[in-house]
Amino acid sequence: MAQYRAALPEWVRDGEAQQLTGLSQATLARERKKPDTLLVWKSAGGLRYERRSVLAFNEARTIRRRR
């Protein structure tokens, strides 16, 4: 598994980030603009998201507070 993850690119394009998160382009852009977002992105050479930050973002979204 570690070798598989090492072979994946560090930065993903907008479309792949949408697939990984299940969010639309507009929602992903809105999340990106929040000051406390976990998403790490860059726009030089086209919009890219750091894969680890996208996965951390997903993890944070799935954690629910117990009542």
Task: Based on the model shown, name its key terms.
67 residues, three-stranded antiparallel beta sheet, 4 helices, globular, 3 strands, single chain, mainly alpha
Which descriptor suits the 3D outline?
A: globular
Average pLDDT metric: 88
- Tally of helical segments: 4
> Tally of extended strands?
3
Radius of gyration from the CA trace? 13 Å
Major sheet characteristics: 3 strands, antiparallel
What does this structure look like?
- This protein has 67 residues and is mostly helical.
- The chain has one domain (2-62).
- Helix content is 52%, strand content 12%.
- It is built from four helices and three strands.
- The chain has helices at residues 2-7, 14-21, 25-33, 51-62, and strands spanning 11-13, 41-42, 48-50.
- The chain has a three-stranded antiparallel sheet.
- Strand 2 and strand 3 (48-50) form a beta hairpin.
- It is globular, with a radius of gyration of 13 Å.
- The protein starts with a helix and ends in a 5-residue tail after the last helix.
- The mean pLDDT is 88.
In a few lines, what is going on in this structure?
The protein has 67 residues and is mainly alpha-helical.
Topology:
Elements: H1 2-7, E1 11-13, H2 14-21, H3 25-33, E2 41-42, E3 48-50, H4 51-62
